[in-house]
Fold this sequence. Notes:
By secondary structure, the protein is α/β, with parallel strands linked by helices. The chain is built from 10 helices and 14 strands.
Amino acid sequence: MASLLNKLSDWSERADDVLTRARARLGLLHPLQVVSYRSYGTPDRLYVKGRLLTDKGIGEPDPSDSRWHNLLNMYRRFDSNEISGAVLDVRPADGSAHPVVTDEEGYFTLNLEPKVLPEPIDYLWYPVDVAVQQVPAPFPLPAQLATQAMVLIPPADAEYGIISDLDDTVIQTSATDLLRMARTVLLRNARSRLPFKGVAEFYRQLQLGRNGKRNNPFFYVSSSPWNLYDLLEDFLNLNDIPPGPLLLRDMALGGKKAGDASAHHGHKLKEIDNLLLTYPKLPFVLIGDSGQEDANIYREVVRRHPGRILAIYIRDVNLPERSAMVARVSEELRSDKVEMLLVKDTVQAAEHAAGAGLVFQEAVSAVEAEKQKDEQPDDNGELDGKGSGQPVMK
């Protein structure tokens, strides 16, 4: 089955490439756009990632957008026309030039060693210029097609980093209810999708920590595809949730080899391993939910990186069997001297964080105030979870 899926994936990619080139020859292709993804690095290494594809005209999200409009935009995100074989010029602040070629799916990735760094933006972010220099025939080369990639470098006085899941941890997705999840994902935009109550203030307090500089870095690890990057980035920005690299994964039709970890488990574990290896002196707080495999993944992280994890917060999705699994993992981690808390709401998590010295005590009242504000009824009358009416991490 895996072999067949891999072949189908190859055929699909070839057919898509032929169709894209045919449309370019006929002048029917949308204009090109270069998309940069927030990434991370160190003072010695910058990791730059992005994609070259056609611009499908997805505009700024608006609360008045209809469900049909949102569904059409979602279709456009996944019906992407990627440009392979293009040459891009990547230039850090030292002015050095680093050419990179897009792969068969239009992605470009580059590790480079800067000679100097500019002054950071908001303590953490370093801009890197990216410009398209050459595209293969028959694609037309647009004039001055360029962007800036933002690379996060934690400062030396950062207290800790935060690694967070997104779906059902930050964003209400209802991943344990397929019909509800499909409706949320397909029919809503970044403005109409809902954050969990109080989560934005809790995350801002974690970024602030106790040094008052708001320089604790956030990293978001999700199994969502890169096609949703703009929606997730807009969501964080619109809800004033601290920005951070979004470590998503590529959609693949091909199957996995027998014995491999699930795609969700393997992707998240690999990305978290990379983060802890990149910043060997930085401790971390992990945040997830009980709906999927976060508790088991985080247990493995603790075992692989002893002494690196300060606390783990798991949002309760209100499924008893999942709660019982988290309780078992939490008990196992006692021997590793790491607390994994199954929390009903953000206030409970903030109370623990304040007691553990991760945030100021005043953070608890700030999170409580935002939670109460967020609990005001919305126009949609939506409930979280499975429709029981019980508040879950609100």
